[in-house]
Amino acid sequence: STQAEPMVLTSRSESGKVAILTLNRPKALNALSTPLFDQLNAELEKADADESVRAIVLTGGEKVFAAGADIKEMKDKQFAEAYKNNFLGTWAKLADIRKPIIGAVAGYALGGGCELAMMTDFIVCTPKAVFAQPEITLGIIPGGGGSQRLVTLIGKGRAMDMVLTNRKVSGVEAGQWGLASRVTEDGQSVVEEAVKVADGIAKFGVVAAQAGKEAVNAALELPLAQGLRLERRLFQALFATADQKEGMAAFAEKRKPTWTDN
Ligand code: CO8
């Protein structure tokens, strides 16, 4: 058969608890196209709904995470078509996924690739990874949240520097700036490291993990007083869970907790 190779490959960690989604358009350096995002969104929704999945790792290749939105797809686009079909509108689905997602970045994360990485909950990268927003070189600006998320992660000045000068930021710098949370040792597999971190999350209760993600994300959207209220309400709500009773009983009894996700 001549069935097309999927543009997003899926696998599981050895523990079976972490879904690994791998961007797979190597000939186009994982350029992000509408069909690729349709597949990515479908796989993300599947993983989010699957109770055996407790965390997700999103990665690309060893040389390229993703070289940005597909320039060939965008080249001849017109406003009316882009507007009517809400171009890029569905590309931010990842940000709605409730399970923890770790971005594992090796090589180029350019334009939409950098933006996609920033949609994950946090990034693990190699020291030689390259993050940049080259949109200005194409006569456009970031369209996948880059101008907003960069400011939160690295501050206004560095965000401006990247967006206005196409500055290339190495993995090492990304770690220093807070764009990446963890930087691997040279030669270490970024996917293995991200999976190890994700497996660590997978060992905790799902309710606490999802609530923690919800609370941190609220900080990006809410004024402080509302964010603090939401955090406190979530905190109080967790006293209705079996996992809170188990976690604190286990501490008091000096044993390991057994989470039931209830
Ligand atoms: N789109 C389409 N095709 C691409 C892209 C891309 N972004 N990047 C690379 N390719 C293709 C090349 O055209 C080439 O195809 P072919 O073999 O048919 O000629 C193939 O991939 C290999 O690329 P190169 O020969 O250029 O490989 P090099 O190793 O010489 O260079 C680079 C690698 C430096 C990564 C180079 O390919 C490059 O600069 N790519 C473009 C990077 C860029 O400008 N990205 C920003 C795009 S704009 C954008 O992302 C807007 C964001 C929109 C929001 C997204 C929401 C998530």
Strand order within the widest beta sheet: 1-2-3-5-7-10
Classify the oligomer.
single chain
The portion of residues forming beta strands comes to 5-15%
Poorly predicted spans:
none
- Computed over alpha carbons, the radius of gyration is 19 Å
- Overall average pLDDT: 96
Question: In a few lines, what is going on in this structure?
Answer:
This protein is 44% helix and 15% strand.
Protein topology:
Blueprint lengths: L7 E5 L5 E6 L10 H16 L5 E5 L4 E3 L4 H4 L4 H6 L16 E5 L2 E3 L1 H8 L2 E4 L4 E3 L13 H9 L1 H10 L3 E2 H7 L4 E2 L6 H13 L3 H16 L2 H14 L4 H11 L10
Helix pairs in contact: 5-6, 9-10
The structure holds octanoyl-coenzyme A.
Octanoyl-coenzyme A binds next to helix 2, strand 6 and helix 4.
Protein architecture, described:
The protein has helices at 34-49, 71-74, 79-84, 112-119, 146-154, 156-165, 171-177, 190-202, 206-221, 224-237, 242-252, and strands at residues 8-12, 18-23, 55-59, 64-66, 101-105, 108-110, 122-125, 130-132, 169-170, 182-183. It is built from eleven helices and ten strands. Strand 2 (18-23), helix 1 and strand 3 (55-59) form a beta-alpha-beta unit. The chain has a six-stranded mixed β-sheet with strand order 1-2-3-5-7-10, sandwiched between helices. Strands 4-6-8-9 form a four-stranded mixed β-sheet. Helices cover 44% and strands 15% of the residues. The protein is globular, with a radius of gyration of 19 Å. The chain is of the alpha/beta class and 262 residues long. The longest helix is centred in the N-terminal third of the chain and has 16 residues, at 34-49. The N and C termini lie far apart (45 Å). Residues 28-29, 31-32, 67-72, 88, 91, 108, 110-112, 115-116, 134-135, 138, 142-144 line the site of octanoyl-coenzyme A.
